[in-house]
Amino acid sequence: MMSFKAVGLTVFPIGCAATTGALFGPKVGDKNDWYNKLIFPAYNPPDWVFKPVWASLYGLMGFASYRILSKSGEVDVTRAMTTYGTQLAIGMMWTPVFFGTHHLKTSAAIVTAFAGGIFMTIREFAPIDELASQLMYPAMAWVSFATLLGWHVAYLNEDNKALKEQ
């Protein structure tokens, strides 16, 4: 039987991401919205992919954090949880910067830092709980892809006249 703590720590990052998405996310149906004027590379996934992928990844990260916290009586998990919390905070910064301020290069730098934070979290989790570390692998893969995508979108839109007209 799963504990309330496990459920809470699993759902917490999903809730954080959903909140930032609701506050700052794109207005996909609004053709005049800034997001809909961006130029994307051909490999950009369709818009409907992002919400379920991010929810799944944040859920895996949250459950990984539960597994680490459950070891706190056996080992010191302070550094691992600080690293996890830091990378989570960095990840939450991306949405307001990208969708809120429209700073493409800054948001690309943030997602790059997020990838680095996930990598460091994997390294911190591994000696404490190998499965918790492995639960971070899908996030590492997706955020690595998001890093490539973010920098490519920034490059493609440097001279996007439709964005400058806003």
Q: What's the gyration radius in Å?
A: 17 Å
Largest sheet: none
CATH fold name, please? Ferritin
- Strand and helix order: HHHHHHH
Mean pLDDT comes to 89
User: How many strand units?
Assistant: 0
**CATH superfamily heading:** TspO/MBR protein
- Total of helices: 7
Helix percentage range? over 70%
Q: Which structural class do the helices and strands define?
A: mainly alpha
CATH architecture: Up-down Bundle
The CATH class is identified as Mainly Alpha
Which word captures the global form? elongated
User: Which parts are unreliable, with pLDDT below 50 for 5 consecutive residues or more?
Assistant: none
Strand content: under 5%
Number of domains: 1
Amino-to-carboxy terminus distance = 53 Å
Plain-language structure description:
- This protein has 166 residues and is mainly α.
- The chain has a single domain, classed as Up-down Bundle (Ferritin).
- 72% of the residues lie in helices and 0% in strands.
- The chain has 7 helices and no strands.
- The protein has helices at residues 4-24, 47-69, 78-101, 104-125, 130-134, 137-156, 161-164.
